[in-house]
Design a protein that fits this description.
Helices cover 28% and strands 17% of the residues. The chain is of the alpha/beta class. The strands form five sheets. It has an eight-stranded parallel β-sheet with strand order 11-10-9-5-2-1-13-12, with helices on one face. A five-stranded antiparallel β-sheet has the order 14-15-16-20-18. Strands 6-8-7 form a three-stranded antiparallel β-sheet, with no helix packed on it. The structure holds 1-O-alpha-D-glucopyranosyl-D-fructose and calcium ion (CA).
Amino acid sequence: MEKKWWHNSVVYQIYPRSFKDSNGDGIGDLKGITEKLNYLKELGIDVIWLCPVYASPNKDNGYDISDYYDIMDCFGSMADFDELLEEAHQIGIKIIMDLVVNHVSDQHKWFVESKDNKNSPYRDYFVWQKGPVNDLESTFSGSAWEEYPEGSNDYYLHLFTKEQPDLNWNSKAMREEIYKMMNFWLDKGIDGFRMDVIDLIGKVPEKKITENGPRMHEFIQEMHEKTLKGRDVLTVGETWGATPDIGLEFSAEYRKELSMIFQFEHLSVDQQLGKTRWDLKDLEYEDLTKVLTKWQLAFQNEGWNSLFWDNHDSPRIVSRWGNDTTYRVESGKMFAILLHMMKGTPYIYQGEEIGMTNIHVDSIEEVDDVQSKNLYFDRIAKGYSHDELMEAINKKGRDNARTPMQWDESRYSGFSVSQPWLPVNPNYEKINVKESVEDKNSIFYTYQELIKLRKTNDLVVYGDFEAIETRNKAVYCYKRNWKNESWLVICNLSGVAQNTLLNEISAEKIIMSNYNKKEIPNSFVKLEPYEAMVVKLMK
Ligand code: TEU
Ligand code: CA
């Protein structure tokens, strides 16, 4: 496999609205990110993935773009962006932008023209159909079709909110506009793209095909040819519908598509609403671990994995499958070790490195996220109970990850000097960056160490992955083998002590332990709650 810079990189995801507010309006902004670059440098990350900062009416917090060539007012200006990019580059941090091209905002000039003028060249940029339309549903509840104007029997497609009309990728003119825009940003010097719901662009709505449509790979290859080719960039496609085979098609080098994808199979094991199996123990652990193993083995020789637990759409991992009270630190470190020792490019979502937790809400009025709100009102009308919907929102709602970054113990957690757009998690006085950096035993230093290990050991980057049988479902264990070196990773996924018997382990030394263990384990391993260990094996 040809070496790439993004093979040994660690990416840090920033949700700008909640990262750092520099001007006291309660909303995070670009200057705020520039102010905090040194913190990211100290953590050791190589790349920032910046969630959308383009002009947007914010029906879906920037995932509804009204102008791809402009910066959202509340985030700052293009000059602020250029300054951020330059300062980041100066200290060796790259920046990838969010590319949202499955849909635009209904305020985008293309859609404004398209909706009011059937003869406009922009009409074909969107997916218009005569009624009656089929029962295709929006990811954000309700029909994916909206009639416009009312009574006209003309409908446009929106796989997300009705203010996010879907682009028609069958339009060559539309595709050329997208490539032009991508080249504008690439020419500016950005280091790649995270591609929002990119596996939807081949949709065939009349056949109710959304993910993995027939022309999807054709479009991605064309995009590669017209924008990415010859540029040494990182591209990661968000693909909820990917299987390992599809992942290979996207990421194998000879395909000339993307560097890697985000697959979601591991985060979908507790998916359905109404299912009460939220906890990992109720999922019997192997629901998760067999998925992790499957994706590791799939890209052993070709293709590349991305590794992540958290993002702006998902609950916080310590709250979701760890323990965010008694064992917050231990479970936070265990999930970090489990993930960062695997093969692929790890992504850290802001606040994950200090073990930020989910937030609790009692009523729908406290919720900001459009997905949670639409779901609530849609399901209440269908007879679901308030309690069960609030439970689902507290467990899986997107606000959990979107509360302001907790920088210190001051009012509004050092995020802002005034009331933030979304409340700060009340635990900020205990859980914050300042406290984490002062405490040598914090989760922060586990992440820092994991990043260092990746930088200094090819084994972590390129070593083969080998799953190891533990005879105990709560214990996940794998080996990484590189040249004549092997490391063993042992993780207790549960909140109770576990024993496990491992074949033929003769360890040479402990590389990492979230319990600061010094004693080298033998084949009979006793593990504390959420204990994780990395050991180097004897040759
Ligand atoms: O997410 C894609 C997506 O399908 C999610 O909405 C997902 O179903 C849900 O969040 C899981 O809880 C991407 C972006 O990451 C998301 O923030 C956007 O809202 C969405 O696309 C539309 O652009
Ligand atoms: Ca601000």
